[in-house]
């Protein structure tokens, strides 16, 4: 192992800290990704550099680049503080429920996560909002039966259930209504490279899940709350069939 090998490995990890950067737009990044794919020794060095920063390599490919996960103690760990402009630590359950609803909307079945299909899943804000509503209704129903998981998320779903669906005079992204709350979280997913936005003239923009989002979510696909979000939607659709 040469000093330049460690330097190059560190550079690849550093690129992973810029989630909206793609290899096709940056020659250095593209070359480092290609080296990772072709050189087993370099791959091991990258993993070691990441481990030293309490990061882990979730996956690497020519289209997405390097996707990094974090350990809880890492300075790069994903916490509610990333939303500090709009949310406090007390809002963690609210943000988590919105994220789960978004995940379940983009990937309604496990098979979608296991696929490397070229077409990325997409959804409108309204579709994610409706999924969130169904999830919170399901949690409220389960809470009446004494379900422990529903009780654990009570603070979040009670807050969301109390919001009006939309406030016409409010900003599109605002905590005062359900539509705006989902918009705030989707904006953050855009800023962190997990979704792209296909803007529409009527304002009903289409949010497209990136391969980065799929790779990261695949690590956490067994989260029970995600299964509940998927099942809640199916139950309501069957009831209206």
How would you portray this structure in words?
- The chain is mainly alpha-helical and 241 residues long.
- It has helices spanning 3-16, 27-38, 40-52, 92-106, 110-114, 125-144, 148-152, 154-161, 178-191, 211-218, 224-239; strands at residues 55-61, 65-70, 122-124, 195-198, 206-209.
- The protein folds into two domains: 3-70, no CATH class; 80-239, no CATH class.
- The protein contains eleven helices and five strands, in the order H-H-H-E-E-H-H-E-H-H-H-H-E-E-H-H.
- The strands form two sheets. Strands 3-5-4 form a three-stranded antiparallel beta sheet. A two-stranded antiparallel ribbon has the order 1-2.
- Strand 1 and strand 2 form a beta hairpin.
- Helix 6 (125-144) packs across helix 11 (224-239).
Question: Topology, please?
Answer:
Blueprint: H1 3-16, H2 27-38, H3 40-52, E1 55-61, E2 65-70, H4 92-106, H5 110-114, E3 122-124, H6 125-144, H7 148-152, H8 154-161, H9 178-191, E4 195-198, E5 206-209, H10 211-218, H11 224-239
Antiparallel strand pairs: 1-2, 3-5, 4-5
Number of DSSP E strands:
5
Q: Roughly how many Å is the radius of gyration?
A: 20 Å
Order of strands across the main sheet: 3-5-4
Strand content: 5-15%
Whole-number mean pLDDT: 82
Major β-sheet annotation: 3 strands, antiparallel
Measured as a percent range, the helix fraction is 40-55%
N-to-C order of helices and strands: HHHEEHHEHHHHEEHH
């Amino acid at each position: 192992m040469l000093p330049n090998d460690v330097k190059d490995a560190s550079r690849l990890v550093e690129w992973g800290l810029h989630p909206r950067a793609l290899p096709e737009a940056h020659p250095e990044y593209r070359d480092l990704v290609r080296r990772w794919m072709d050189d087993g020794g370099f791959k091991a060095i990258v993993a070691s550099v990441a481990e030293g920063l309490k990061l882990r390599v979730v996956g690497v490919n020519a289209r997405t680049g390097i996707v990094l996960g974090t350990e809880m103690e890492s300075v790069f760990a994903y916490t509610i503080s990333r939303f500090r402009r709009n949310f406090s630590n007390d809002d963690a359950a609210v943000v988590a429920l919105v994220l789960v609803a978004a995940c379940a909307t983009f990937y309604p079945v496990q098979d979608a996560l296991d696929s490397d299909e070229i077409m990325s899943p997409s959804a409108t804000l309204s579709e994610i909002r409706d999924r969130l509503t169904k999830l919170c209704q399901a949690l409220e129903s389960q809470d009446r039966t004494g379900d422990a998981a529903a009780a654990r998320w009570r603070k979040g779903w009670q807050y969301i259930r109390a919001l009006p669906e939309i406030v016409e005079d409010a900003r599109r992204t605002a905590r005062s209504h359900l539509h705006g709350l989902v918009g705030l979280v989707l904006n953050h997913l855009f800023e962190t490279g997990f979704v792209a936005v296909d803007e529409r003239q009527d304002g009903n923009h289409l949010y497209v899940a990136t391969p980065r989002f799929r790779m990261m979510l695949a690590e956490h696909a067994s989260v029970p709350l995600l299964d509940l979000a998927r099942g809640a939607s199916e139950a309501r659709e069957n009831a209206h069939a």
